Amino acid sequence: MRFNFLLLGLLLFSCTKEVNIDIPVKEKQLVVDGRIESNGFPIVFLTQSQYLYEPANLGSYLSSNVTTAQVTVTNGVDTLSLTLFSPSQLPLESQISLAEMLNLEVHEINLLPIYVYSTVNPLMKGLVGKKYTLSITYENKVHVGTTEILSPVPLAQTQWIPDAENPMFGLCRAYLNDPSTERNAYRWESKLITSYNGLPKDQQFRHGGESYFNDAFFNGLAISFETRYPKKDTTYPSGYKRHFKYGDSVVIRFSHIELPVFDFFDKRLSQMQSNGSPFSSPVQIPSNISNALGIWAGYSYWQDTLYCIP
To answer: What is the pTM of this model?
Structure first.
């Protein structure tokens, strides 16, 4: 029996061979993170894609910021060239939108050495029902994408549901009558405006990882769903750190978005969740911009204030 094991080991050792895999270096692509929302200015953040084995850190990401492109937006009537702004040069409402885009705090983006393309011309503030075409010329290539600010879809009702075991904390329950005329996609966000030390707790809207969803399973139906506060409050008891507290005031923002916008963020989330897993399948993230990666997204929002009392 010893001989058989030794022979097997020799055979396995003799079959060992070093394999070198030559991974081709793909040409860098333009990456677009752009948005325009109802009553908001367009914001476009440009970077370049990174090679697989380049350092994956904040410094390399920031150093890939593109600042030499020509960027225009047209609404079918007016065409405006966007100019470069550092975050601190933007109007406060645009600073907040940029912070929401990058999932950072407003004071954090103002410390970043980045530039974004935007405008303060009121002719290009987002209007419901209009289509906006983004055109980017960079390194002799033209990249074009179009998005529409759809009509807002309101929530029928929101209410605070206290927890049965600890009624000082609860969840938000929302009721939606989904339009039956077409497929729709949405985004859910919230911010606490309860005063802490004389100031609202949140300056910007916050969203969880799965804040985007579509009506594939409830098209044309009336549904209800429950949500938690996206950010943990470490001062709350265990099990309630993402709950809304009795007496809180919460602004709910419910955005109606195009299906391609939902597809982009849904696939991007899937890729982020499966990153590094040897059992996951590759995720192809779609884009609505020609010859580039990323998204040009229009948001039409409905919002209301929820008071956390039974």
So the answer is: 0.86
- pLDDT for residue 27: 79
Q: Is the pLDDT of residue 90 over 80?
A: yes
Matching CATH number, 157-258+303-307, of 2.60.450, 2.60.40, 3.40.50, 1.10.3110 = 2.60.40
283 exposure class (CB count in 10 Å sphere: 0-12, 13-18, 19+): middle
pLDDT value at residue 281: 61
The answer to whether 264 and 289 have CB atoms below 8 angstroms apart is no
Q: Residue 281: how many CA atoms within 13 Å on its side-chain side?
A: 4
Mean pLDDT of 2-18: 46
CA distance 64 to 45: 11
pLDDT score at 11: 43
Please give the structure tokens belonging to residue 231: 């950010």
User: Cβ(192)–Cβ(179) under 8 Å?
Assistant: no
Which tokens sit at 271?
Answer: 């890729």
For CATH 2.60.40, the residue range(s) in the chain are 30-149, 157-258+303-307
Residue 106's alpha-carbon distances to 84, 91, 188, 191, in angstroms, are 18, 12, 20, 14
Name the DSSP class of 88. G
